[in-house]
Amino acid sequence: MGGITLNFSLIFRLTDWLSFSPGEIGTFMALGSLAGFLGSNIYLGFGSRFKPASVLPFAAVIALLCSFVLRHAGGPVILYGSYWLLQTSSAFFWPAMIANMTAGLAGKELNRRISFFQRSWMGAVMVGPTIAGFIYSWNSEVNFIMVNLSFLTTLLLFLIMMHYFRAEIIHPGVEASSKSDIISPYKSADLYRYRSWACHFCAALIMGIINSILPLHIRDGLGFTEGSAGMVHFFRCAAGFIGFIILGRFSVWHFKSWWFVYLQGGLTFCAFLLLLAGNSLPFIFFVVIIYGIINSGTNTTSVFYSSSTGKHPKRNAAFHEIFMSLGLAGGASGGGFIYQRFNFSGMTLILMLILAAGVVVHVFFARHPSTQQDEA
For the whole prediction, is pTM greater than 0.90? Predict the structure, then answer.
């Protein structure tokens, strides 16, 4: 809740207080995502050696301190530096959380755990921008107080967890013994993981646009309020919440090669609908609902294959975050500059062509003999 509320509030604060253009907003958010990419790589090299019990509170402390600095930042150096550091700390948070959550699990039990986890953060993402959008026009300072309280609560929860549930916290040795020797019955297990990351990256491209560019388009391009922009996140997350529930109950999609074609095709269809939506806010709401459902599929698929294939689930969790960070950066930065130069329709047309190319790639792999043998 803290992270998404901060990003949403910064979009309007940078525009209103520092006169950022859409391209500059996109670049700012993209650099934050690239800081997440850097943090994930640091976690790959060093963080995965430590217990999640140590990594999670550390990340929460850094996020809390940076959120206080951002609340009072007046200059670009402090603004950029504190935001990058916060995003880097988040890149330590999520891989450790995913590794701790999925250790020792496989199949349907892993699927149920992922579903519960996804619904927990999706609920917060649904609430944060919705409230922040309506509050911003009244007093933007309250938004940043919400962010501070969110990170403070996160830190306190982890400290309580460490005190009362120390025996339940997973150590690296425990994870290694239970997860490092996973043997998948599918010959193309690694290929499934790589394809899930590719879908996750493409979904993050759209997410970068929805998070960074679409709110500005709704307010400054269409003339609606910040509250209306916040409702985009509400509809997207409500749909995603339902999608996570459904995916948690069914495992028919596990190790099914054509599942990736459906996901990539759905993302391409969403870009096409955004192209048609133009200046219609109700149509935009409809599109983000469809996207929310499909994004729940790409996210769950990526976490599932990151956790259930390969010998290094902690490293895979970091790669899950890396591809998301790259997609968010590409969507925010590229979408911002294209929107500024070619308007909303030009931006969505280029996005649709990129995603359509991904469909061709996934169809090729779906027809590959090795994956067909797996499903047979």
Answer: no
